[in-house]
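Before going further, learn to read the protein records used in this course. The integers have meaning only within a learned vocabulary of local backbone shapes. To see the layout at work, look at the sequence and tokens printed below.
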Amino acid sequence: MPADTGNGTDAAVAHKSDLAGVHTEVRWLAQQAPSAPVSAEPSGSSEAPNAASTVGQSPANNGEVGDLLDETVVTATRTRERVQDVPRTVTVVSRRQVEQQSLLTTNLGDILGFTVPGYSAPSDGPARGTYRGRDVQTLIDGIPQTGNYAYSNQLRFIVPVSIEQIEAVGGPSALYGDGATGGTINILTRRGTETPQAKTRIGFNLGLSNLSGGPGYLFEQFASGKAGAFDYAITASYTGLGSVYDARGAQIPNEWFGTLGNTNTYNLYGKFGLDLGADQRLQFTAGYANDLTDPNSISDPAVTTSGGLQFAGAKNGRIQIQNSPYSPQPTKRNLQLALEYNHNKFLGGSKLLAQASHRNSFELTTVNDSRFTADGSGGPFDSINRGVWGEYITTARVQVETPFSDNFKLLWGSDFKNDPVEAWQLETFDPKIYDESGGFIQRRSGNFLFNPAYTLTNIAGFLQANWNISDQWIINGGLRYENVSFSVGDFVASNTGQSVTGGSLNFNSTVFNLGVVYKPSNEISLFANFGQGFSLPVFANPLTNASSGFAVSNSLTALQPKLVDSYELGVRGRWRSIQSSLSAYYTFSSLDVGFVQVSPTQFQSVRSPQRTYGLEATLYAQPGPGWTLGTTAAWVQGEQDPFNTGDYYPLNSYSVNPLKATFYLENQTAPGWRNRLQVLFSGYRDVAYNAILPTGFRVEQAPVGSYATVDYLSSIQMGAGTLEVGVRNLLNNQYSPVYSQYLSGFNDRNNFAARGATLNVAYNFGW
């Protein structure tokens, strides 16, 4: 990782934490030189302070927990602040923690599931997560990654080796606008170092429950340096995963919602900076990612004829796709370009950040048997199909941070986003040939458009104030004005066959936030926050289900954005060897988006009141020399009033996960040798299964069972580098992640088990 701070100097903040816990609410930083202050770069940019620890290196501890907390900074709120000064729950995952977890999995969604208390439990696959029971906005260096019709792609576009730190802010936000109703996750990437660095990591993984799948491979390369006014940071990575097996030794199918088995992932990421004098900087970033899957199995249909709940089984064979213009290889690929300009003495004493980006992504899914009936008579979605979809998003932002005094500052600016949503094409395949071949000959018979193409343009202006009234009191708040233009041409609704005349709509809204921090002592920090979130519905859903009489011009209820009000109270405690936090929150939207089942094969989108509420707690400690431990717990519930009758029904377990708790214990066993055990527990949830809607159907088709996993991690200095050994699912527990259990209610073919015990070995070194 880069050893310099955000301003490019070597007077850096070195990561000296012995608290190697992944679930940290803060980034522990200790200054190498007491006289070197933490740099204050433009808020929300990629200029995070860089940790000095190298890849795989075990940093020494030069301070207690409370001492290190004082040096913490966070940028996810668009202004540089220490965590104890933020009136919201903040989780910061450092580079060292990301690297540590990436030995077990390079799936960033799973890393977030283990490190961020309010985020969904790891899915062991590509599923998109939720945050506090709602949608999450994902940013990379402050650039929005979530489009109106995004699925699981955004977390596949960045790999752990490119990450400097991850900052997660819980709850709706008026700071970044559309999409952040559950929280905001800002992924900050690495930048050039003052002195040249080159670091390599190579490794393999092997499923221990069945060795016939062979090993998967890992290669990561990082290079950075500075030549005069020019600096660079380049990362390249490859991960190859063969067939994967559950704890019983049974192969897990290569299906759309399953694991990432038989997938090769390639990623290139480069950041190039040019200092234009002491106070100005120009930076160009380019990233390319590609997932290529080679499916060698389908989910065996025979599982649906077995009694009781079954795990999806793999049916192996050579898959042929005929008559299709697209590749037989499912893929997710993405190209992102960004240009950023910083001026730290703008108009005398303000800090200016200007940024523009463009992202182009494409997804081709696996073929899925989505039939509810054997003859496929249930309509176009009751078919064998695969999705073809692309996304082209352009964003721009300008923000200025103006200090009026040492204790009061304003952040003001504007955001722009253009999101032209493509028509998502579904190829359909001949069911007779599919069945006769056992599912291995997939001959295209036609295609239809799931949704019409439409365009969204979002322009926003914002103003945020931060006032340090005294050493004990801090107030911050502000407002954001959103203006959204929506347009769609004439189309035929795919789910109803209804012809609809296109049109244009314009939405605008003003949201605001206000937070207070009170510090009764040096050890205790109390906070309260009210925040509003603004989020556009996925417009494709009401458009595909348009019925007779639907018109774009008079469909405000179906298409208008949702506003979410959030209330949060919390307390943080920090002592020399212990730190902890506890927060409670409640959110409400009077016109949210939900789904209810109205027939055995049909779900209806509804706009109705929805509420979520929950608790989050963390505790980190150093019980003795060389020992660290941490634990987190997150509990969330949510209900909706789908028929606007005042009767609330539980939200499903995809949106609202069961209780999630984590624990780790780490020991510096000997100089250069560290060992760690970590546990994740996901609880039981049947409240949605027990709830019967007025339509006669259950909210959820099956209860979600509890499970626990144990992982082991060890690193030891060896020669010029570090040897890392980890075992994921150490006890070889047979279970299905929450998301797979949710899908199993519709079809056992979707009940994908998690991987069994998996050995991971890597060696990393600098040169």
Q: What stands out?
A: Helices lie at 65-69, 95-102, 108-115, 431-436, 540-544, 556-559, 687-690, 738-744. The first helix runs from residue 65 to 69. The first strand starts at residue 13 and ends at 14. Residues 1-71 have pLDDT under 50 and may be disordered.
